[in-house]
Amino acid sequence: MTTSNGSRALITDFDGTLVHLAVDWTALRRELGVAAIADAVRRGDAQSLSRIAVAERDGAVRGQPVPEGIDYVLRFPAFAVLTQNSETAVHAFLDQNSQLRRRCRVVLGRETHQQRKRDAPVFAELIERCMKQLEAVDVTEVTYLGDEAYELELASGIGLRAVDVASLSR
């Protein structure tokens, strides 16, 4: 099934694209004693990772949905989520929306890639994993929906159609 934008598969980011997580990042960084959440992830401390996952999960439940992103996702028969956030946060969000839950084929989050989504070879490998779950055989059939310049550049660089969620409200 082809969508109106010519692509047949969608891979999307999560925070800022489907929902704005209701997380006080400043307080969480202070609590964890780090300058950036990525620092806590790199440390790999199970207690810190668990605390971040709980904050993101709760933030996903209380967060503000991004209507443009959700509407765009619903144009596709199936989609995958590739995020720096915890997979538990994505699942908590999807559990609140049965239409999204039914269409989501795979969630690859921090537990899968340890916050290395910014690394071009890792990003490409994760995209390939998503494509397999979506049964997409050619990257030209895949759209990547996101909100960060780096991810849109990485997606475009490997041949995906990159869509900035902010462009959908224009």
Short description:
This protein has 170 residues and is an alpha/beta fold. Helices cover 48% and strands 15% of the residues.
Q: Could you explain how this protein is built, in words?
A:
By secondary structure, this protein is of the alpha/beta class. The protein is built from 9 helices and 7 strands, in the order E-E-H-H-H-E-H-E-H-H-E-H-H-E-H-E. It is 48% helix and 15% strand. The strands form 2 sheets. A 5-stranded parallel beta sheet has the order 5-4-1-6-7, with helices on both faces. A two-stranded antiparallel sheet has the order 2-3. Helix 9 links the parallel strand 6 and strand 7. The longest helix is centred in the N-terminal third of the chain and has 17 residues. The radius of gyration is 15 Å and the shape is globular.
List the helices and strands and how they pair.
Elements: E1 9-12, E2 19-20, H1 25-32, H2 37-43, H3 46-62, E3 64-65, H4 67-73, E4 79-82, H5 87-94, H6 98-103, E5 104-108, H7 110-113, H8 120-134, E6 142-146, H9 149-157, E7 161-164
Parallel strand pairs: 1-4, 1-6, 4-5, 6-7
Antiparallel strand pairs: 2-3
Helix pairs in contact: 3-5
